[in-house]
Amino acid sequence: MPGALPEGEPIPLDGSLPDGVADTAGAEGFGVYVHVPFCATRCGYCDFNTYTASEGVVSTGYVEQVLDELALAAKVVRPPRVDTVFFGGGTPTLLPPAELGRILAGIDRTWGLAADAEVTTEANPESVDPAALRELRAAGFNRISLGMQSAAPHVLAVLDRRHTPGRPARAAEEARDAGFTHVNLDLIYGTPGERAEDFAASLRTVVDAGVDHVSAYALIVEDGTRMAARMRRGELPYPDDDVAADRYLQAEEALTAAGLGWYEVSNWSREAPCRHNELYWRGGDWWGLGPGAHSHVRGVRWWNVKHPHAYAARLADGASPGQAREVLTREEQHMEDVLLRIRLAEGLPLAMLPPGALAAARDCLADGQLEAGAFEAGRAVLTLRGRLLADLVARALT
Q: Is the pTM of this model over 0.85?
């Protein structure tokens, strides 16, 4: 990639970002992502950078490691404030609430949390209880994203999910009772063996749970996962694109009827979108803490070593955990901006598109993939048909 530094070159966290980058970090908002790579078990479809105790990875000392990286990060960028924090994984809530709170307090001491900062943690429904949720809320978390995936026991079994079908809705209620302002439930659709009525039941469950945000993603089978191996052996059928499209239409109908409007192709909200994810989609600045975490500041992107042992060893030596970085060219930044912004309900200005891409946008309009009224007003906004073909539209406009 043009502008990329050699793979494997360590990132010196000593302020040596390109001229002008560090000084302008966070000028349009700044987020912090905290990766917590621990899981009780590994789901069959998951290819995230996560580890279980059976793989020899434990959480002892992890909070101190993240705080050590944060101290190094403070030498590089000084954003005016932190607007959003997102703890992801893995299962962040395998760490005690007090430990997650220590990391959040460290971020506040280092850069300062905005008064209205959005602070999210992901959680498996069985990894939290009312007491833990109250502790998380007291520590400063105000948003929680619960992995539900499905309400059908046989679908959960195919996904290797361990929670019982009713637990996510109860966890969502407990989170609201604990004072969480925003609660999200995650769904996966298109799992082998999932019927239309199964997904309809999942949608009824999230609607009846009264959450203000729902994320729904088509199942993607990644190489190297147990699910991919089962499909290669013929034990499970591969996902069907037509079925996935039908499920998406189910989601759109049910969630819209319940007052949840789409703001990104895979996300619906009643009141407030996830501000942290919006920061990604709009090309904002963020620092990623933890093994394998990615960061981006003003067109410079870097990522940490993936394995927790390597991450810990680097920090123990006082060295950066960064593995490599790339400096995006203006053309690359533009391409990514188009690819991400077209997924948003607000779309993107047609003025962003060069002549060739503008001609492609007209073809998309003619095919019913872009809204005519928005196009006349100078914006490219996906129709429902366009959302089903979002990847094709994005490639056409780049």
A: yes
